[in-house]
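Entry: PH domain-containing protein
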Amino acid sequence: MTDTPAPPFHFERPARTRRNVVVVITVLFGLGAARVLLDAAWGILAVGALVTLPAVWDMARNHVATLSLDDRALGWSTAGQTGTVPLPDISRVVLDTRLDLSTRMTLELRDGSKLRLPSECVPDKDVIDATCRARGLDVRRNAFALL
């Protein structure tokens, strides 16, 4: 029986998701309701609306965050960062579950440095865990990391 290499893994997450659209619409609707029902001050409403601008900007651009893993390297791309790390340079992959149940992925490199991947390009922790282990990477999972 021969070991067949694991197929390349590719993950994409667009900025314009149903969840993001619903959250922005809900916030804006809530601000409108606060104005009508509570006679909220325009300044407070403006600050509330400013909070949604980064999400609206991301949805308008609709940049797609990606993570790719094959037998040679792990690569990622977001609106602000791109990078590639050869697999032999990775000592361990650390998956931290945060209190908001999101997953933070940190690469511990053989030279002792650590590289944290942007959260928007990290897939579900069970998927990335199995994918990394299939390529022989050491994976450590931490539950409920605060920082």
